[in-house]
Amino acid sequence: MIVDDEAPICSMVAEILSSAGYKVWEANSGARALEVWASHRQEIGLILLDVVMPGMDGLTLLSALRRQKPNADIVLVSGRLDEDTRWLASESGCHYLPKPFEVSDLVRLTRDLLGPATPPASR
Asked: Are strands 74-78 and 47-50 parallel, antiparallel or unpaired?
């Protein structure tokens, strides 16, 4: 699942990961992410979470997700990952990916955490 309040970034990441063979859910807010999570938590293996968002920020959402599934694979994504946020990511068992990032870094990190994408069934 990708959680980012910037629709173009959310769409771009979704397209990249879909093209790499992963099933992707998008959420443009913390509240929407919780709705998607409630409906698809058994299918979601990784959460790419923007830190800075209006309303429910990424760190508040991180806490809510950790209460529901403490071992969820979460990657904090931000152009403003300062030392405090890096420390929090480390302490909360998250990975982080600084913006801007290379497509290859995004795909590699996703593959490292989820394993290779499942190829679509042939017809």
From this structure: parallel
Burial 68-102 (b: 16+ CB within 10 A, else e): eeeebbbbbbbeebeeebeebbeeeebbbbeeeee
Tokens linked to 74:
């979460």
- What domains lie within the chain, and their CATH numbers? 2-111 (3.40.50.2300)
Tokens encoding 22: 């992963």
Closest CA to 96 of 106, 37, 104, 30: 106
Per-residue model confidence as pLDDT tens digits over 21-73: 999 999 999 999 999 999 999 999 999 999 889 999 988 999 999 999 999 99
Element holding 92 (H helix, E strand): none
pTM, two decimals, is: 0.88
Lookup result for tokens 């959680």: 3
pLDDT at 15: 96
Number of other residues whose CB lies within 10 A of the CB of residue 115? 9
